């Protein structure tokens, strides 16, 4: 078995949520510390890591970022190396991202190029976001790369393909949390209460009208409520409800507009259901915007290789806090085909592991070309 498949499986066993990636960090560290120390410097940052592979005669630093956190999902793949952590799973491919980064790192420790390469193992991509604080950290300011790359697995594309485009690749995101407080009471006396289950249901429906009636049909936006909590038992009217969701837009202006409409709709709920509502927009991610020139050159390079097929794709409504890094450092992100019938954030996501070697090969070849 390819050693990086074994590493992916080890990491798949121990998914951890954002800023709790202690075992993951320890695993990464123990692997990296076993490599030849001559060329590497390591600095811990919270539950993440910066690893610099020193070049032979560096003129610049190439950055490569891998995210390391898992999701709160009960795994249903039935794999023998399924998650051992209750209600946590690598369901967004970050186990792949890490093992690929370790494969590329190992290659350059053994086969140094002229330039430095900075590997960034970043916590909390799924939330609340590790990229922005990591970017602002003293370590990053000292070791700041001149150009930066990252990939994300793509279940919808076959192994042996990558997909990307110049410019906008992933949407702007904002988390959304709404707490409603009314008046609970006996299930048989609804007229004496303000039922927050009814208010929450009505609110979910009204939020969707923002997408269908306030966003230009030629633009794109998404509001998803992924979680509702309310009530205690079947015969008590709920005093409180909490909605948890996310907003996606293709521009900052649309994000402002959608939030203004959410504020207005929630005010309407307060009036009509005689309740109190508190909105918290949580963490926001900057859109992922691929540098045009670097992307053109990257596509041209990849098309000159016989081992990979390049698909020029459309933008997606996914979010990625790597967008913050691309806002400050020129570079790109691409999708890596991993061919799984179940998509990202699904309990049965099972990416094809052959893609790990494909990714290590194309990245080492491209970075060697860029950094020599
Ligand atoms: C690639 C991917 O799936 N990223 C996540 C990022 C989540 C950001 C934040 N927690 C939010 O939900 O807005 C995604 O859901 O797109």
From TrEMBL:
<dbReference type="Pfam" id="PF07687">
    <property type="entry name" value="M20_dimer"/>
</dbReference>
<dbReference type="InterPro" id="IPR002933">
    <property type="entry name" value="Peptidase_M20"/>
</dbReference>
<feature type="domain" description="Peptidase M20 dimerisation">
    <location>
        <begin position="178"/>
        <end position="267"/>
    </location>
</feature>
<dbReference type="InterPro" id="IPR017439">
    <property type="entry name" value="Amidohydrolase"/>
</dbReference>
<feature type="active site" description="Proton acceptor">
    <location>
        <position position="126"/>
    </location>
</feature>
<protein>
    <recommendedName>
        <fullName>N-acetyldiaminopimelate deacetylase</fullName>
        <ecNumber>3.5.1.47</ecNumber>
    </recommendedName>
</protein>
<keyword id="KW-0378">Hydrolase</keyword>
<feature type="active site">
    <location>
        <position position="67"/>
    </location>
</feature>
<comment type="pathway">
    <text>Amino-acid biosynthesis; L-lysine biosynthesis via DAP pathway; LL-2,6-diaminopimelate from (S)-tetrahydrodipicolinate (acetylase route): step 3/3.</text>
</comment>
<dbReference type="InterPro" id="IPR036264">
    <property type="entry name" value="Bact_exopeptidase_dim_dom"/>
</dbReference>
<dbReference type="InterPro" id="IPR023905">
    <property type="entry name" value="AcetylDAP_deacetylase"/>
</dbReference>
<keyword id="KW-0028">Amino-acid biosynthesis</keyword>
<comment type="function">
    <text>Catalyzes the conversion of N-acetyl-diaminopimelate to diaminopimelate and acetate.</text>
</comment>
<comment type="similarity">
    <text>Belongs to the peptidase M20A family. N-acetyldiaminopimelate deacetylase subfamily.</text>
</comment>
<dbReference type="Pfam" id="PF01546">
    <property type="entry name" value="Peptidase_M20"/>
</dbReference>
<dbReference type="InterPro" id="IPR011650">
    <property type="entry name" value="Peptidase_M20_dimer"/>
</dbReference>
<keyword id="KW-0220">Diaminopimelate biosynthesis</keyword>
<keyword id="KW-0457">Lysine biosynthesis</keyword>
